[in-house]
Design a protein that fits this description.
The complex is a heterodimer. In chain A, helix 3 packs across helix 4. Chain A is mainly α. Chain A folds into two domains: 93 residues, RNA polymerase sigma factor, region 2, helix turn helix motif (Rna Polymerase Sigma Factor, Chain: A), CATH 1.10.1740.10; 70 residues, Orthogonal Bundle (Arc Repressor Mutant, subunit A), CATH 1.10.10.10. Helix content of chain A is 72%, strand content 0%. Chain B is elongated. Classes of the chains: A mainly alpha, B mainly alpha. The interface between A and B is large, with 51 and 35 residues.
């Protein structure tokens, strides 16, 4: 178990949720909303949809907390629900696209442009971010989840295996394939120190 | 490099590329990786790309959430509670309407007895001459004819027979 989240306390919070304690739900919301939002944004590419998916995930956690049995760890169980909810939201988004409703990804940055002297630096940064976002959008949604969990959240393959219910050997192959696909798109990009 | 050596090298390279994702390799896997990377520039390059990609992705910024996710969660929960109560209320309303209809139908007698019910007819009521007193006794079990008494209906049957000359 990694130090990413204090699983013990999360376990106790879920137990309290099972007893109908809404304060425990609020505590879980505080702990997980940012992480789930980032994962949702990675997959959906739209901040508003990512928020909806995050809220839906937390509601499902409350409604299904009775099913939690502490076999897999609270964090893993929460992420399983998050991944399924986000992928369901993505499928709904795609169906809306097919029906002609334009729900394209919002701009990465929602804030207003800065002072003139910082404009070029900010634009360069935005272009870089856009390039990363577009490259990741080229991956299937399930691979985007995998890349996010592995690279951004630094999860071990064992944890990802538990969350996605995919064998480790498959995860390794998929990650190798994702790296190969991203290389021509991001190969020249510089690291951020 | 022979064809077999190349194939073995490729297979080993495939294994290495997959194992790059393992953040907690066993000592044996670590030794094998190190040995291969020492001899394979292609896989060293792949490792370097893996590290660079990790840096790129971790350096990516995310748009801020609106800060109202908690309110959003509570609003969704409240909406679902309301929907749930409305469903219960609708089910009760339907049950009440069906019960009322059932009571009206029963009271109106459409199911048990009542105006439309046609009782079994005895021989006498069918104006067939009675062969014995027993035939007339059946009239006692007949549902009452609204306008005639039981004895009157029996006599009526007799009178009809007489008038027609059957007696």
């Amino acid at each position: 178990m990694t130090g990413w989240f204090v699983d013990e306390n999360d376990n106790e919070l879920l137990r309290r949720c099972q007893r109908g304690d809404e304060a425990a739900l609020d505590a879980l919301v505080g702990r997980y909303q940012d992480r789930v939002f980032r994962l949702a944004w990675r997959v959906l590419g739209n901040a508003a949809l990512a928020e909806d998916a995050t809220a839906e995930t937390l509601v499902k956690i409350w409604r299904r907390c009775g099913q939690y049995q502490a076999r897999s760890g609270a964090g893993t169980w929460i992420y399983q629900i998050a991944v399924r909810t986000i992928l369901d939201t993505r499928r709904s988004q795609q169906r809306r696209w097919l029906r002609g409703l334009r729900l394209g990804p919002a701009a990465i940055h929602d804030h207003q442009p800065g002072p003139q002297e910082e404009m070029s630096r900010r634009e360069e940064w935005q272009q870089r971010e856009e390039r990363v976002r577009v490259a990741l959008q080229a991956l299937p949604e399930s691979d985007r989840v995998l890349v996010h969990l592995h690279y951004f959240e630094d999860r071990t393959l064992a944890e990802i295996e538990a969350i996605l219910d995919v064998p480790k050997a498959n995860l390794k192959m998929r990650l190798a394939r994702a790296r190969a696909r991203l290389r021509p798109l991001l190969g020249g990009i510089e690291n951020v120190s | 490099m022979s064809h077999e050596q190349h194939d073995e090298g490729s297979a080993e390279c495939q294994w290495v590329l997959a194992e790059l994702s393992e953040r907690q390799p066993t000592p044996e896997v670590s030794r094998r990786l190190e040995a291969h990377l020492a001899d394979c520039p292609t896989c060293r390059d792949a490792l370097a790309w893996d590290r660079r990609l990790a840096g790129v992705l971790k350096g990516e910024s995310f748009p801020p959430a609106s800060g109202s996710i908690q309110q959003h969660v509570h609003a969704l929960l409240e909406r679902r509670r309301t929907v749930w109560w409305r469903g219960i209320a609708a089910a009760f309303a339907v049950a009440a309407i069906l019960s009322t209809c059932g009571v009206i139908l029963l009271w109106d007698g459409k199911i048990y007895g009542g105006r439309d019910h046609k009782p079994a007819m005895s021989a006498a009521a069918n104006l067939v001459p009675a062969d014995s007193l027993d035939d007339l006794m059946v009239l006692v079990a007949e549902p009452p004819v609204p306008s005639l008494s039981r004895s009157q209906s029996g006599w009526l049957a007799v009178l009809v027979q007489v008038s027609e000359g059957d007696l």
